[in-house]
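Readers outside the structure-tokenisation community will struggle with the description of the input data as it stands. For illustration, here is how one protein appears when written out as sequence plus structure tokens:
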Amino acid sequence: MTSQPTSLKVLVYSDDSDTRQQVILALGKRPHPDLPELEYVEVATEPVVIQQMDAGGIALAILDGEAVPAGGLGIARQLKDEIYRCPPVLVLTGRVQDNWLAVWSRAEAAVSHPLDPIELAETVIRLLRPRVPAQA
């Protein structure tokens, strides 16, 4: 029997600390009772995103497409190209009309600014559920 992990690591990338805080506050410690608690890894620069993702253990990456100088959309595409069995990626886009860029980036999902906490939580739950072993 596989035991459920005690927490899931969620990488949150943005050069803007306010954006990172919006994501973390919207999701909270446990967005759904079926999921373990979330442990956040806050990242402000592209090299650290790559380093964290290469190290493994990340269940989900949330990347800000509006980050500068390296946008999350380009980073998402790079991760999908370079990491075998890359964890799911959620990109934050500037507006709904930019969601086609999320398709280009090969991210599994996109949520546009301004962030809707309910939409963000539902999207994260959908992406994380398959990463948690079913309870026996």
User: Anything to note?
Assistant: The two ends are 7 Å apart (CA to CA). The chain is about 40% helix and 20% strand.
